[in-house]
Amino acid sequence: MKNAPHIGLLEAGARGTIADVAGVSVGHCTLDAGDVQTGVTVVRPHDGDLYRSKVPAAACVINGFGKSIGLVQIEELGVLETPIALTNTFSVSTIAQAQIRSACESNGKIGRDWPSVNPLVLECNDGYLNDMQTFAVEEAHYRDALAACSKDFARGAVGAGRGMSCFELKGGIGTASRIARIEGRAYTTGALVLANCGRLPQLTIAGDAAGRGLHAAMQSNAGPEQGSIIMLVATDAPLDSRQLRRLAMRAAAGLARTGSVYGHGSGDIALAFSTAYAVPHDAALIAMPPLLSDAFIDPLFQSTADSIEQAVLDALFSAESVTGRDGHRRISLTDALEAQP
């Protein structure tokens, strides 16, 4: 098995990535130098100014062992007003500062005549492969990742995913998409994960307990789960923030299928947003399309769970083997499978 199997019955979008959702783009900045194996990944819901043209969003904390910035305001107000940034645990404050600077450069009234801006930075701990105490990530790396945003982007051991581990193998950035059909209309759901969670004996690939055999063959000495995963869900379906939180909760279903049990030391966070409409910064009234009724939302729950499961597998199958801090090494899933008799 050299490629990830297709998960579920729904078809994928044209690219099979989160960028199948209209307006969404992704960029990376990767740091790969000896003990430094880390980076930044940025997801843009649209190409415009997110502070002036916000998008509805919601988050769900499945297990809260995390150090993110920005989730409190998203819970309260239900909108994104910066791109979503992913990085390592010790770089959250640096990237938040870069997001604030970027927003202020575009909108000089922020923090003066206008309210402050809510940066959004989500993280995982890449300390096994990356020496986080070097504080190698700088504000310029956020700008580079933002400038690199494109509909076509790399996956695996790139950007924020460079130093991440998943099921004791090489993890990183994974993505997928699914098409859900509701009352004759097609809606796209896209997922992107920063996969850094799980224990090898638990790894399940399309229902197959593949991790058990790999665990025995590799003589893995798995300890308690100490990883994390960030799961982003984008959709072009017209949903409000309450409904998007319901969508984010279904990311846990997809993650569970891969074998994760959301261990004590794992920060498992899902965030969902819609590109179906924008929320103007300074409008008294907001023009919204008719929202999808909750009674018809089940196909989106299915597309969310399937695309998250697919995205985790995509991270594993896309990653290359990496050697990092103090000679620590994470072998890729493809290399591990090829080594089996």
TrEMBL record:
Assigned protein family: Belongs to the peptidase S58 family.
UniProt keyword list: Aminopeptidase, Hydrolase, Protease
CDD domains assigned to the protein according to its UniProt record, in alphabetical order: DmpA
Keyword Protease: yes
An example Gene Ontology molecular-function term: aminopeptidase activity
Pfam family, one: Peptidase_S58
Domain of life: Bacteria
Transmembrane parts of this sequence: none
Record's protein name: D-aminopeptidase
